[in-house]
Amino acid sequence: MARFDVGYLVGSLASRSINRRLASALVKLAPADMALQEIPIRDLPLYSYDYDSDYPEVAKRFKEAITGVDAILFVTPEYNRSIPGALKNAIDWASRPYGQNAFTRKPSAVIGTSPGSIGTAVGQQHLRSILSFCNSPQMNAPEAYIQFTPDLISDDGQVSTESTAEFLKTFMAEFRVFIERVLTVLPRGG
Ligand code: FNR
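Above: the input record for the complex with FNR. Below: its predicted structure, written as tokens.
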């Protein structure tokens, strides 16, 4: 039985997303007692507070999925030195209506990959700022800025470089420790 249910959000909608490949690798490398499931963002309409009194089904399901897991893992590209609009839109949906923010007290971690040498570092800083406002306790370290090289991760999440696989494994193990720590002081449903 999984001890920790973790939902992951992939910030890219691209069919050949390298961040989706990274997410597949992380699922494989996670500790055995972490169950990871994707919480899809693709079908969400663009948020407006006009919906606050009556969320569409897709947004209700999305928000319930966030509420229902122990923690959230963000696996996202950097677009124009920030996060993709689709991901920001998804966060906006889950954070509203005012006073019903699904991220509050929900532990999170952030990781991403890019062909560029800074490996999504600037985009992640933007995301961290958003998550701070959303009152999500974030894992501070290890940080994970993954420079993607051709064939680093296959479509089904096999990592070709031993040192990268080890690093990603450590990242997930540390996230597990972090989630347990947060849930010790902020118990589920508390
Ligand atoms: C990019 N890319 C990019 N890369 C980066 O390191 N920093 C950046 O600011 C940007 N900006 C950016 C904007 C837009 C609109 C696109 C489409 C791309 C390149 C990006 O890292 C590359 O396309 C990755 O493949 C994106 O990850 P996914 O979508 O494949 O997971």
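Notes for the reader.
The mean pLDDT is 96.
Strands lie at 4-10, 34-38, 71-75, 108-114, 145-147.
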